[in-house]
Amino acid sequence: MARRKKIYEGKAKILYEGPEPGTFVQYFKDDATAFNAQKKATIDGKGVLNNRLSEFFMKGLTQVGIPNHFIKRINMREQLIRSVEIIPLEVIVRNFAAGSISTRLGLAEGTPLPRPIVEFCYKDDKLGDPLVSEEHIIAFGWAAQQDLDDMVALALRVNDFLSGCFLAVGIKLVDFKIEIGRIWENDFPRLVVADEISPDSCRLWDIESGQKLDKDVFRRDLGDLADAYTEVARRLGVLPSNVTHAAKPTLIN
Questions:
Q1: What is the domain range of residue 44?
Q2: Neighbouring-strand partners of residue 32
Q3: What's the CA dihedral at 136, 140, 143, 145 to 10 degrees?
Q4: Is 123 in the same domain as 187?
Q5: Can you give the pTM of this predicted structure?
Q6: Which of 12, 23, 27 is nearest to 183 (CA)?
Q7: Is 58 in contact with 238 (CB distance < 8 Å)?
Q8: 243-251 LR contacts (CB < 8 Å, sep 24+)
């Protein structure tokens, strides 16, 4: 597909004008960032893996009736997506204590939570994506109460789906974040899952060993990030079982 006008560039992806009105081309970069982009690196092959993994999860969501922005994968690094009006919130679902909730509440990492907990962060890199309450969200007009109720329900459905996918291949879904946007159909808004679902946006631990298979490998200097992502892709059947990162992953169409 010919390169088109750049619409937006983030830390891990670039959005280009799509071939049809109401579409974008989403390009996955090899860049890795942590601690609000204070730590940066280029990880060879990361964008290829995340493109394919996000395709796998978005297709799975579609199959179980969870609306999302994905249309099709175009090539190794690009996918065609629907244009959505992004709600400026990160929606975080936590199944076990890790990361900021451990720090905030003094919970030991890995502590099972009494039920999945949904949190919201305001999307603003300059502010460090601060945690916000539903009261903030409604007061500042980022979303209405009905939107919030629908977002929580959508996030919990995604959690059920992802937890099952990972549990089947021996991986614990500790937590994840998604973005949700609006699309307009006959002048009526509809909420859909947007952005990406990949090890960049999930905490994933091997059930038996506790080995981390997500971006914490990069954050905490625990090894090769691409090897961790390749292991996730291989377990899910996205890569052949005999592939290693060093062998340059070949994707299954």
A1: 6-84+224-244
A2: 41
A3: 60
A4: yes
A5: 0.92
A6: 23
A7: no
A8: 245/45, 248/45, 249/45, 249/48, 249/49, 251/48, 251/52, 251/76
